[in-house]
Amino acid sequence: MASGFVAAPGKAKVEVFGVPRMAWAGKEVVFGRAEARDVFALLSISADGVPAEAIVETLWPGDGERGGRRLESAVREINQAMRQASGCASGVRFVMKSGERRLLPAAWFDADFWRFGEAYQRASTAADDVTRTAALHEALALYRGPLLEGSDDLWVLPIRQAAQRQAVDAAERLAELVRADDQGRALDVLRLAVERIDPYDEMLWCELMTIQAELGRLPAVRRSFELLKARLAEIDAVPSAQARQVYERLLR
Fold first, then answer.
1. Do residues 174 and 133 lie in contact, with contact meaning Cβ atoms separated by under 8 Å?
2. Domain end residue (candidates: 76, 110, 144)
3. How much is the pTM?
4. For residue 118, pLDDT beyond 90
5. How many separate domains does the chain show?
6. Torsion sign across C-alpha atoms 133, 135, 137, 143
7. CA dist., res. 115 & res. 109, Å (int)
C-alpha cells in the first residue's frame, strides 16, 4: 500500500512518518541547524501548537533563558527557509504565535501526522462500516514508517509508540471489516502491518496465519511462523506459548 499523502495545493508537504522531510512545490526544504530541525519536528506532530516553555523543556531541558534564545533562533531560521522556498515577503511568518503557543498554521502546512490523526478519529466515530473502512484505509496509507525514523531523542519515543499502536489497531480493525467479503484484502492489510508497522506484534502474525489457514494455505502458515521467529530473534525473543499454540492448532 503506497503512501496516500498528497499535500493540499499551496501548502508545504510535511512528512514525519518514516524519515522526516518537508517540501514546497515539490522541492525539499532543509534547515541548517539541529535546533530548527528539532523545533520543526516537534511542531509537526502538534497540530494545535506547543507552549514555548514546553518546547524548551522538551528539547533543551534545564537551558532556561538560553533555551528561549535557541527557540527564537530556530523560529527565525524556519521562517527564513520557508520564505526562500515559497518566495513570500520578508514579513510573512510561518511559525505563528497563539498566546504562549508556537504552531505551524494549517494555512501553510499539510502534515501526514495531522491527517493520520484525523483519519483515525473518523474511524472511531464513523456511523457506518463504509465510512469506517475508508478512514482506516487512509490512516494506514499515511503510515509509511516509524514516526521521525532515525531520531533517538527521548521525547520522540512515547509519541512514536502511541502512533504505532494506533496504526496496529487500524490494521486489525480494517482486516476484520473486510475479512468476510474479501479474505485476500484482509491478508494484504495484515502483511503490510507486519512489514511496515510492527514486525514483532504476535497478534498481527496470528491473525495473518489464521486467514492463511482458512484459505487452505498451510505452507504459507509455516512460512509466516518462521518469519515471526526470525523477527523476534532480532530482539532476542521467541514466540510466546500462546502464539505457538495458535500455530499448532492451525496445522491440525
1. yes
2. 110
3. 0.90
4. yes
5. 2
6. negative
7. 11
